[in-house]
Amino acid sequence: MLEVRELLVFYENMLALNNLTLRCAEGQVVGVFGANSAGKSTLMYAVSGILLDIAYKEKVRGGERITQFGEILYEGEPVGHLKAFQRARRGLVLCPERRRLFPECTVIENLKIGGYLATRAQVRETLEFVLELFPRLQELRRRQAGFLSGGEQQMVAIGRALMAQPRLLLLDEPLLGLAPSIQHDVMQAVPKIRSERGVTVIVAEQYARPVLPYVDYAYIVENGSTVLEGTRQELLDNPDVRAAYLGGMG
Ligand code: ATP
């Protein structure tokens, strides 16, 4: 479904992604784990097309030069040249780090904004799915998003991304700043999104522990390159992964 080949991204002279290669088959849940600054968000931005928008804006205002090399294939076709909205229209949708909700809009309004490329029937049907997936949002539907807790905001952010009718959903650090019990509430939505909506999911996260149980396959990224990859079980069995990313789990 997605194949990233030898992706290289420079912010001015700073190498953020260094020949990163990644594959994700249709129906899989794939994890991308790495410390702060490993390059996870840059990867998510590059795949979703946001990086092109950022590069363009930087160029217009005479800011830093962002360069990107390598190939991004989505459903067998190169999409690296397409704008973010064109990729979103094809079902390649990013749920960005730090949620980026419209704080003064209500929960329902935020969700509906996500559906701006969808038909009315899709909006109605997906809204129903999102409110079943996160029943808490049903109670909060008229509340302004800015007043919600971090976990609730994350649920809105995922819901909003679902409203855009993804076929491949990119979740960038969905657990950032959330308490462990809330992390579980957020992650348990992932298998339902896959089984009930047929959506393929890539989750980038700093800590593997809360995410690894939900993935089929994962990549560990350091300094913009993959240092290790494998199935969930291979990573769980790997002593280096346990020491560095699972904090002595098991
Ligand atoms: P985090 O957990 O902090 O979000 P990350 O793994 O998502 O980390 P990126 O945000 O992709 O990492 O950053 C990769 C590298 O690129 C870092 O060294 C970061 O400082 C640098 N970087 C990111 N965005 C920019 C930018 N706009 N200009 C310059 N350098 C940047």
Tell me roughly what share of residues is in helical segments.
25-40%
CATH superfamily: P-loop containing nucleotide triphosphate hydrolases
Order of helices and strands: EEEHHEEHEHHHHEHHEEEHH
Quaternary state of this entry equals single chain
Per CATH, the class reads Alpha Beta
Give the CATH architecture.
3-Layer(aba) Sandwich
Broad structural category: alpha/beta
In spatial order, strands of the major sheet run 6-7-8-3-9-10
Strand residue content: 25-35%
Task: Supply the number of helical segments.
Answer: 11
Major sheet, described briefly? Answer: 6 strands, mixed
State the domain count: 1
Query: Whole-Å distance between the termini?
Result: 33 Å
Low-confidence stretches: none
Over all CA atoms, what is the radius of gyration?
18 Å
Find the CATH topology: Rossmann fold
* Shape assignment: globular
pLDDT averaged residue by residue: 93
Total beta strand runs: 10
| Heterogens | adenosine-5'-triphosphate
Q: In words, what does this structure look like?
A:
The structure is a single chain. The chain has a six-stranded mixed β-sheet with strand order 6-7-8-3-9-10, sandwiched between helices. A four-stranded antiparallel β-sheet has the order 2-1-4-5, covered by helices on one side. It has 250 residues and is of the alpha/beta class. It starts with a strand and ends in a 5-residue tail after the last helix. It is built from eleven helices and ten strands. Helix 4 packs parallel to helix 7 (150-163). It has a single domain (2-101, 166-245), classed as P-loop containing nucleotide triphosphate hydrolases (Rossmann fold). The protein has helices spanning 40-48, 50-60, 84-89, 107-114, 120-133, 135-139, 150-163, 180-187, 189-197, 232-237, 239-245; strands at 2-11, 14-24, 29-33, 66-74, 77-78, 92-95, 168-172, 200-205, 217-222, 225-231. The mean pLDDT is 93. The structure holds adenosine-5'-triphosphate (ATP).
